[in-house]
Amino acid sequence: ALAEAGAKAAAAADAAAVEQIRIDYLGRNGLFPALSKEMGSVPPEERKDTGRAFNTGRNKVQELIDAATARLASADGGSGEAIDLSLPGRRWKTGRKHPITMLADECVAIFRRMGFIVAEGPEIEDIFHNFDALNTPQDHPSRDPQDTFYFNDGRILRTQTSPVQIRVMESHEPPVRIVAPGRVFRRDTPDATHGMNFHQIEGLYIDKGVSMADLKSILQTFATEMYGPKVKIRLRPHFFPFTEPSVEYDFSCIMCGGKGCPVCKHSGWIEIAGAGMVDPAVLKNVGYDPEVWSGYAFGMGIERLAMLRYRIPDLRLLYENDVRFLEQF
Ligand code: PHE
Asked: Membrane spanning segments where (predicted)?
């Protein structure tokens, strides 16, 4: 009986099997209690040896049970239950790029293919680079502390990526061909299409004989690379202190095919940003000869590009960091 109990204990695959061994041998109707009842019929001179054998056997079974329990516990981390190796594993939650980062990376990749290189500038900028060198008059409304975040030392949070144009031209001889993605800050009241900080990608191309036609073609090429052959662009006359002539430009809303939807506020177009031919005054400020060099500049809102790409009707969704939203990208 002991050999049998030992074999069963060694084979026991789970806690229930071990419990069954305990019931069969030590339980109320098990083998050892039954043997114990028969003790009375053992002749007195044999009782001592029989009793000792009985105790040894019962202890041995208890040891087998303890050993089997310990073996099972160590195999499954102590929960007392066996591991089911056929269960599917738990999925790791992996992080991923934020949609704004993905869009910025995509823009950069498109412009790099067209020969632009990436430049960067500081988010805390001085008045000279953000306004003065960009030909912005002293009384221009964008300088107003109502619109721009000022530090006590007179520096500001840059309101646009255009100061990177100045930094690049100050430190490089023409020709230049750069894009500069980055975060910008304005004291706007946040709503569905405006935030206190947002992202732009700036472009600047300075060479001999650059024209408005070059600007238009680069914007259309970018739009097509980004959104496919159906997207149209539209330039509207505008004013910027640092470009002349200046335009604002829109992409047709591919989300609704121009019929109107929340993304384009039912107009069929979404405003992407501003552009124009670099003003000769700006070229002079950085020591480039405007008689020799000309060029274009553009700035795009990356949030707007993301809204158009992913049908996001409200850009505040991009900043709430709700995992249910971010998981979709
Ligand atoms: N900096 C402008 C803005 O933020 C956009 C722009 C960039 C316009 C380059 C012209 C040229 O609105």
From this structure: none
DSSP per position, 9-25: HHH--SHHHHHHHHHHH
The whole-angstrom distance between residue 62's C-alpha and the CA centroid of its chain comes to 57
Q: How far is the CA of 160 from the centre of ligand 1 (A)?
A: 7
Find the mean pLDDT for residues 11-24: 81
Q: Are 259 and 295 in contact (CB under 8 A)?
A: no
Q: Is 83 helix (H, G, I), strand (E, B) or coil?
A: coil
**Cα gap 312→189, rounded to integer Å:** 19
Q: How far is the CA of 197 from the centre of ligand 1 (A)?
A: 15
CA-165 nearest atom, ligand 1: 9
Atom 9 of ligand 1: nearest residue by CA position:
298
Find all residues with CB under 8 Å of 147, minimum gap 6, and list them: 141, 159, 186, 187, 188
Q: How far is the CA of 74 from the centre of ligand 1 (A)?
A: 66
Which residues does a 6 A CB cutoff place in the pocket of ligand 1? 160, 162, 202, 240, 243, 273-276, 297-299
Whole-number Å distance between alpha carbons of 212 and 238? 14
| β partners of residue 200 | 182, 301
**Contacting residues for 124 by C-beta, under 8 A, at least 6 apart:** 151, 155, 156, 157, 158
125 Cα–ligand 1 center, Å:
16
Q: Between the CA of residue 225 and those of 113, 229, 258, what are the distances in Å?
A: 11, 8, 19
**Ligand 1 atom at shortest distance from the alpha carbon of 160:** 4
User: Alpha carbon 265 to chain centroid distance?
Assistant: 27
Q: What angle do CA 37, 38, 40 make, to 5 degrees?
A: 90
Report if pTM > 0.80: no
171 band by pLDDT with thresholds 50, 70 and 90: very high
- Can the peptide bond before residue 175 be classed as cis, meaning omega within 30 degrees of 0? yes
Atom of ligand 1 nearest to the CA of 299: 7
> Which of the given ranges, 28-42, 79-93, 132-146, has the highest pLDDT on average?
132-146
Kindly state the tokens that stand for 277. 């031919």
